[in-house]
Amino acid sequence: xxxxxxxxxxxxxxxxxxxxxxxxxxxxxxxxxxxxxxxxxxxxxxxxxxxxxxxxxxxxxxxxxxxxxxxxxxxxxxxxxxxxxxxxxxxxxxxxxxxxxxxxxxxxxxxxxxxxxxxxxxxxxxxxxxxxxxxxxxxxxxxxxxxxxxxxxxxxxxxxxxxxxxxxxxxxxxxxxxxxxxxxxxxxxxxxxxxxxxxxxxxxxxxxxxxxxxxxxxxxxxxxxxxxxxxxxxxxxxxxxxxxxxxxxxxxxxxxxxxxxxxxxxxxxxxxxxxxxxxxxxxxxxxxxxxxxxxxxxxxxxxxxxxxxxxxxxxxxxxxxxxxxxxxxxxxxxxxx
Length: 337
Ligand SMILES: Cc1ncc(COP(=O)(O)O)c(C=O)c1O
Known about the structure:
The protein has 337 residues and is of the alpha/beta class. The chain has 13 helices and 10 strands.
């Protein structure tokens, strides 16, 4: 079924912006520390452009569509330390497109002064994006659409990239990760029992779930809710997965989607003790730089599931490092480092 998934994915065009395939590496010291299972890390933080991250894989396909539409301006948005909008800004710079971002304030209480100016906020400016401060209302795409509307009225040809680059095409893009993991794990002589990662705007998990159901049927995709909204995340995972399966002409069974609650801490964007501990372990044992909002919470969730005995010690798990490293600097001393 792997070749069939590849053939279906080949119907979609990508720009070739992201550095792919990303490496799949063993985490021997973390595995030994936890007493098994064998742990592997898929380095989606190494997708290249503008310090990388999982959104570039989605943008590779979504921006092909943007260029085909004749757009001259990319419009997106996210919170102050959004990795997604930083990757949109980076891609726009590479493509010579203007970039306007709706920067949501109020979803997260800033942990310190650096939050507003450092990390992704600094990189957005470095990459030349125009930033528009807007209040967080809970409608993730509302201000992005309003901004695009205003730009159209001034004669621009904007292309709207949804919050988190999450839509059915973004999910199709993420199914390519399954092809890479299937090939890389076969070459390393293992079949993953699970692929574990953090889930937020959801299309990362949707693509993984649709791809794995077809090409890695013995591998369970486990999303760790980091938004403290597990029902909303799960509903979105199902919606984008259904959309992606339709685009790929594949059947879709919602049973292939699993969102685990209970590891997001008190709220989105607040690093709690288990996350800080996971970030420190990954740094000290594997030289990985995880972030407190996404990848750190994802690893904290996976460690909790391992401690709860979810997988036997002789199984193999793939943890996806989805990126987010720049926000590590914005959280600074709130991590006690
Ligand atoms: C570093 C990082 N990891 C994971 C995610 C979650 O991916 P998705 O939004 O597709 O669920 C995000 C989304 O913003 C992210 O920035």
